[in-house]
Amino acid sequence: MEARICNTRITLLPGDITEQETDAIVNAANPGLMGGGGVDGAIHMKGGPEILKECKSIRRSLPEGLPTGEAVITTGGRLRARKVIHTVGPVWSGGERGEPELLAKAYRSSLELSLKMGLKTVSFPSISTGAYGYPVEKASRVALRTVAEFLKKNKGIEEIRFVLHNTNDLKTYENALTEIVH
Ligand code: AR6
């Protein structure tokens, strides 16, 4: 599914984010930035050791780790994407602990960093909805609303892709996007 928000193409597609050839792909990382499971594991595995090397160097200036909602950027290593933006989504613990605001912040920080670095095309996974347990229906609305609000205020990004790992998630994101653009 495709839509346009303020001249930016929004694409929802099924698949593996590590295959995307966008300028950057976003990693759903954890504060340690040393890799992990899920999309984080897949990105490090396919991108190779250069990504971890740069993450280690970033950690030297962030001894406590990357706070939830913030984002940093590294090389894409051997990936088709030139850059990886690492952000940390919130762990779901019922929804009353600022999870929606923190999830929105993770998307916003990633988009701000993309703009700052002159990146025109960016792919996102469904941040927080795997190991971090955020319900995908709620997360998809936060993700797409945050992207739409960002694009109303900022010009310069040509395409934003959401790469969903399974067809249920894809359907859920399609419903959320339909709600937002209509
Ligand atoms: N391409 C696209 N989406 C994927 C891929 C892939 N290759 N692999 C998994 N997903 P998760 P989180 C989907 O757990 O919830 C890690 O261990 C997956 O199906 O990767 O933010 C980190 O190190 C799900 O829909 O991220 C952290 O410790 C979505 O990506 C923690 O998990 C996010 O699932 C972060 O948890």
Q: Order of strands in the sheet with the most strands?
A: 1-2-7-6-3-5-4
What series of H and E elements makes up the topology?
EEEHHEEHEHEH
The CATH class name reads: Alpha Beta
Task: Please give the count of helices.
Answer: 5
What sort of overall outline do the alpha carbons produce when their principal axes are compared?
Answer: globular
From the alpha-carbon coordinates, what is the Rg to the nearest angstrom? Answer: 15 Å
Query: Main sheet?
Result: 7 strands, mixed
CATH arch. level architecture: 3-Layer(aba) Sandwich
**CATH homologous superfamily heading:** Leucine Aminopeptidase, subunit E, domain 1
Number of strands: 7
The oligomeric state of the chains shown is single chain
Small molecules bound: ligand AR6
Distance between the termini: 14 Å
Secondary-structure-derived class: alpha/beta
